[in-house]
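dumping this here so i dont lose it
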């Protein structure tokens, strides 16, 4: 399904992605909510599901935040209006929610984080704030007014007191009222404020955006084992300095060149991204990739038990192509495969659903058979 309305994918990526907001009327015409408000509330009662309540006029002060799991008593104690329920990663629990994310694969799938669903009573809001990641806001039910404002950074002023980061200053530039099926895209750092008009539900499609600090840390962790004692700072050709105590710009440039040389390995950098971006959102709940003790015959027998298979909702796959191998990333792990496996690995990563006939027939290489065995018996792909 094309969800960008009048925009082509190319136009959206060129003119809007990570640049400016865009409202898409009827991105999904005649959209029907995937679950009712009471069903969403039911998810928030579960121990394993991350949820929050934000109450604008809370008992402990403005913008009170409560974390789930909740009880029915918690809901009975809420005020009549001006509160919001947020449930994270609904795509990991509701298959239809996972299917909805398929419509956003014009962005690399390893960048997609999760589908959060919010329910709000009249006037419900999480306040004026900004996010450090891209988000598509799909109106599922009712109406919500969205206001957008200035670009923000960590230096932007926030209110003291609330545990959520509420902007102290909000310079409105635009506002729209969204109806079911309408969708608003917001780039990282843009101040926004959504206010429910009556009861409403909004679906937020969020994306992973690791911080530069985290990327540096992971890259260094990958680089350090490749360095030896022979890799050292050097300054051959140094010129005489008038002040021997000065560390000059030339020294900084030599250090810069040394560091760039150390990380100038595309395969290593892709592996850093691949492992980081395929880590499970909730480690304690997600299946873990590990070598299986089962054989190929066991795998075939298991696959024959169902015609249709699917990637586990909490499994994350990606791949990269190198000169001498194909790297398959899964749950933060990397598995090296022969270059001849590229097409099969690409289909494995680009698809969510698989026919058992294709899995059995296509995975002919011994390394692919071993990989598929691991995926099946680690429950990373499951029968449906």
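and the seq i came up w/
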């Amino acid at each position: 399904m094309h969800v960008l309305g009048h925009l082509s994918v190319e136009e959206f990526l060129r003119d809007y992605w990570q640049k400016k907001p865009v409202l898409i009327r009827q991105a999904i015409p005649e959209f029907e909510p995937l679950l009712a408000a009471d069903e969403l509330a039911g998810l928030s009662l579960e121990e394993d599901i991350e949820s929050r309540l934000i109450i604008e006029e809370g008992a402990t002060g403005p913008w009170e935040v409560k974390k789930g799991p909740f009880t029915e008593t918690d809901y009975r104690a809420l005020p009549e209006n001006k509160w919001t329920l947020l449930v994270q990663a609904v795509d990991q629990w509701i298959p239809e929610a996972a299917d909805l994310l398929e419509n956003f694969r014009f962005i690399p799938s390893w960048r997609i984080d999760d589908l959060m669903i919010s329910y709000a009573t009249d006037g419900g809001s999480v306040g004026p704030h900004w996010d450090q990641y891209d988000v598509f806001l799909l109106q599922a039910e009712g109406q919500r007014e969205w206001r957008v404002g200035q670009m923000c950074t960590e230096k932007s002023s926030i209110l003291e007191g609330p545990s959520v980061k509420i902007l102290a200053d909000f310079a409105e530039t635009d506002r729209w009222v969204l109806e079911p099926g309408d969708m608003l895209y917001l780039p990282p750092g843009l101040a926004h404020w959504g206010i429910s008009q009556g009861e409403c539900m909004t679906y937020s499609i969020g994306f992973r955006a690791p911080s530069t600090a985290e990327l540096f840390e992971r890259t260094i962790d990958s680089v350090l084992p490749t360095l030896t004692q022979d890799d050292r700072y050097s300054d051959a050709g140094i010129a005489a300095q008038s002040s021997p105590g000065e560390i000059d710009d030339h020294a900084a440039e030599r250090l810069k060149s040394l560091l760039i040389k150390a990380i100038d390995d595309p395969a290593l950098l892709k592996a850093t991204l691949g492992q980081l971006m395929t880590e499970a959102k909730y480690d304690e709940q997600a299946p873990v990739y590990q070598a299986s003790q089962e054989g190929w015959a066991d795998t075939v027998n298991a696959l024959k038990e169902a015609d249709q298979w699917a990637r586990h909702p909490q499994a994350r796959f990606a791949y990269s192509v190198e000169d001498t191998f194909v790297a398959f990333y899964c749950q933060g792990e990397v598995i090296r495969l022969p270059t001849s496996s590229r097409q099969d690995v690409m289909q494995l990563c680009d698809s969510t659903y698989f026919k058992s006939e294709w899995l059995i027939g296509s995975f002919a290489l011994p390394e692919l058979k071993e990989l598929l065995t691991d995926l099946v018996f680690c429950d990373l792909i499951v029968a449906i």
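DSSP finds eleven helices and 15 strands in the chain.
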